[in-house]
Amino acid sequence: MTDTSDPPAPREQRPxxxxxxDSSPPASASPGDRAAAVAAPSSATSGVAAGKGRLGPPPWxxxxxLAPALILLGLLVVYPILYTIWRSLYDxxxxxxxxxxxxxxxxxxxxxxxxxxxxxxxxxxxxALITACGLIFAVLTERVRWAAAFKIIVFMPMxxxxxxxxxxxxxxYDHAPERGVLNAIAVGxxxxxxxxxxxxxxxxREQGSxxxxxxxxxxxxxxxxxxxxxxxxxxxxxxxxxxxxxxxAKAAPAQPGAVTGTVWADFAPGGGKxxxxxxxxxxxxxxxxxxxxxxxxxxxxxxxxxGTFRIAVPDGAYTLRLAESNFTPPYNxxxxxxxxxxTPAIIGAYVWMWAGFAMVLIGAGLSAIPRDALEAARVxxxxxxxxxxxxxxxxxxxxxxxVFVTLVINVLKIFDLVxxxxxxxxxxxxxxxxxxxxLVSFVGESPDQxxxxxxxxxxxxxxxxxxxFNIRRFRSEQG
Amino acid sequence: MTVTTKAESGSGLAAGAPRRSVASRIVGRxxxxxVQALLALIALIWLVPTIGLFVASLRSASDSxxxxxxxxxxxxxxxxxxxxxxxxxxxxIARSFVNTFLITVPSTLLVVVIAALAAYAFxxxxxPGRDWLFLGVVALLVVPIQVGLIPLIQLFGDIGxxxxxxxxxxxxxxxxxxxxxxxxxxxxxxxxxxxxxAARMDGGTEWTIFRRVIFPLGGPAIASLAIFQFLWVWNDLxxxxxxxxxxxxxxxxxxxxxxxxxxxxxxxxxSGAFLSMxxxxxxxxxxxxxxxxxxxxxxxK
Lengths: 479, 301
Hints:
CATH topology of the largest domain in chain B: MetI-like fold
Radius of gyration of chain A: 35 Å
Largest sheet of chain A: 5 strands, antiparallel
Strand content of chain A: 5-15%
Largest sheet of chain B: none
CATH superfamily of the largest domain in chain A: MetI-like
Oligomer: heterodimer
CATH topology of the largest domain in chain A: MetI-like fold
Order of helices and strands of chain A: HHHHHHHEEEHEEEEEHHHHHHH
Structural class of chain B: mainly alpha
Distance between the termini of chain B: 51 Å
Number of domains of chain B: 2
């Protein structure tokens, strides 16, 4: 029984705006194809084969048309490449020939080597991540009606500068949870699952207190207690703002068969005696008190509003402990732009900028896949996942490679985003080659343009494979 | 689903098919609902950072220092245009805004004109070594600007262009050319031969043909290129940072310098950054189609 009543998702509504891409062929990354398709369906052959023996201008005329471009390219692009290579063989002053010393320095100078390592991380992570995002977005948007709106939203960051994006994400990553949206969310989520401790930073006096730190962040009594005793558990260092919200502390009467006591803030404006409940001193409510015997918790209680508690226990000697959970400092989120996370954080901002690029290119490729191929696979009983893995992905492979290679080239040259986002304290941890090249060559008291040139040449060598790839692709398209 | 279909199969195909489709439609709806929700979440994640900057640019420095931008949801009274007023009163920023135009517009025009001339020669004039020369241009596509910085500082210094707007423009023009020539040549090559031959028959000079046939017909590609180049120059930091000085810095450098100052002025930075985004966003929304095409074509860069 063939399923005729289950048509594929409607694809007649081509999102018209954000995806002018959709009208292009899969290899629309090649302007040649697109230009031919748009302007001249009748003459798809490229102009390379133009005019042998036909009416045409004399060859020398080309010189006039080419002159401005060739002069600029020769003087400002080709000559600098050669000069930079030559300069990289000389020392900082440009006086002494040092052969390959500057290239050795890239590996021995720790800051430059760090840049090289970070570039490797960037190349390993960012292009793959962005291509994956682009693929997922492109596939998913094929199934919704508001694809055009979605594409605009995700593609928009492509239009803005890395400086603006850097400022945007510096705000997002602000480590103070009351300012940075990411940490506000992190703290919100964290506190939902683990409620914040009521008295962060509160502690016993260092001397003369019946309590002492138990080594794990909590506090336990120095002396053992027995049922029928009432114990005083004074604490200090409670913020005045917090004190205002609390009720006055009361001494707990002794009761048989239970340990009783009071946990309170042992400080009142204008004095008061240590370890004694004075007027105006506030009881700490909701403090978790544990009774321990032989190192094990045998009973617990929580203090009331006036700071009193009662733990019913059988006769014996106990240690009381105020658990660490009462005093842990509040969770403040993650230091995104600190030394450990600065590179991943900046990569995150970069993904935000470039995912739209990958999505649009891959989307154009998707829309060019012949529907017949997909339908045939479905009719043969393939699941959607199999269709995706076995048909869509292989047909899409050329586009994915173009996206990936383009991203590798761009990622290698990353500069602005790192320079804007990395705070001074962790800029060395975020170091990348292009930034190092700039800092070494132009900033500081003793710039070293020999090393700077060597870094530039290394960058050039790193993008060289991509350049060769481009030329080969171009030639095969021409062929 | 399969079970239902089998149970119903006795009553005939006509009855079975719709039933199955109801079930699979429900499954499809659920799946589709999930996709919709996921995409909505992603769209939100992509939007919120920009909204955050925009709202921050509308809050006073002390508000921004003490609370998050999302507090405007409950206290909209804190919104103010004062930052933008201060921005215009800030000499460095105001001048850099003008500089950005003075750098971007000539860089774009020069690249378009020079590249169009060269692309025409590459596409429609036969001369020896043409293909190799064009291959050379393609090879320059991915040359990182870093290799040009040190030599050109010296060269521009020697001829008095260092630190000036023309120097920055010249750098942008040169490094924009390979992509521009590549893009336009491929487009021009697709213009129907008949049109050119007809013009040549009529005795048009190459210059006339270029002006009357190629330039108008190349419109879409030229538009894509112009937008792409415009945004590339507008958004540049590195070139202007190195080749500019106090009087010729564009907006990106002015903002960057604010972020490096002690006790960063969030009010100036956020409003300045948003100002710098405004023109690219206008260009993006006004010329979306060409922009996307330019990006697609420029995926080699």
